[in-house]
Amino acid sequence: MYQPIHSDFIIHWTGKDIENLSNLNKKEKDNLYLERLRDILKYGLWMTKNREETFVIISGEKIKKPSVARTCFTELRLSEAHTHASEFGSLGIGFKRFFLFDRLGSPMVYYHQIRRNWFFPPFISNQDKNNLDLYFLCFLKIMAIKTQERHWRYKYFDESEWRIIYSEDIRKLLLAHRELFFRECRIDVVSLFKNPKNKNNRELNEYYTGLNGDIKPDWLLPLDAWFSMIIYPNITVKNRANEDKEVQELIKTIKAKNTPGCPSYERENHPIEVDLSACRNF
Question: Fewer CB in a 10 Å sphere around the end CB: N or C, the chain?
């Protein structure tokens, strides 16, 4: 029987901002995590842009990436969950890979930033073209950092990252090539991304305008029946979520969504729920 090397679940981690609130006690942080879970179930995952320009850097040369919003995931096994929780936050929302495929998501391609490779020549010849030709750059990432001891630590390669990207230019590109993208996906890709700034969608816009702080989502990714797992920061938040009628009703609604290509056994299957400390056992 085929045994995959990677996990069958791809996890989005969130909550680093909550962990950084040093003035809050554990109960207050638990409240924020439960609120974060409700928001994700109700409105979707955040997609945000870098506030500064980003580049691919190879052999000292910088090539500008297109400006896009993104949502990031990892496909490492749950036994590695603590590593990611310490880096990105302690709430994990898991999906089967088809959630990402339907949204044109892809695993990252890692390269060593001071070594030549097969990607390098096309970058040089294409960098003056329209940015619509360069979206593949958003799926390239350096694999290592140099430590103080001058050793290479494969920090980013160890993340096994996947990514979904989107922007207004991508929306226009998908609509202009509707047959090419939608025929293969069997789904209207554009409809899977929601603009929270669009006042025609009152519920999402009220959520957006009610958010505090400078960082807000550029786009939202509502969940569908490929939603398969919740990793809670601790057992207390897990128990509270199980007792929360709104959370449980939202989960049922998501799993019942008509999701093209998703088999009935996935739609009928309640997501796996586990707390972060229990992940050490997998």
Answer: N
Bigger pLDDT: 153 vs 271:
271
pLDDT at 99: 96
Burial class (CB in 10 A: 0-12, 13-18, 19+), 158: middle
Which CA distances in Å does 115 have to 104, 111, 120? 29, 8, 9
pTM (predicted TM-score): 0.89
Distance CA 88, CA 160 (A): 14
CA 134, chain centre distance (Å)? 21
- Residue 123 makes CB contacts below 8 A (sequence gap 6+) with 56, 58, 63, 137
Q: Which phi and psi angles does 140 have, rounded to 5°?
A: -110, 140
Pairing of the two strands 227-232 and 272-275: parallel
User: How far apart are the C-alpha atoms of 108 and 119, rounded to whole Å?
Assistant: 13
Could you give the angle at the alpha carbon of 200 between the alpha carbons of 69 and 15, nearest 5°? 40
Phi, then psi, of 262 in degrees rounded to 5: -90, 120
Lowest mean pLDDT among 114-118, 142-146, 278-282: 114-118
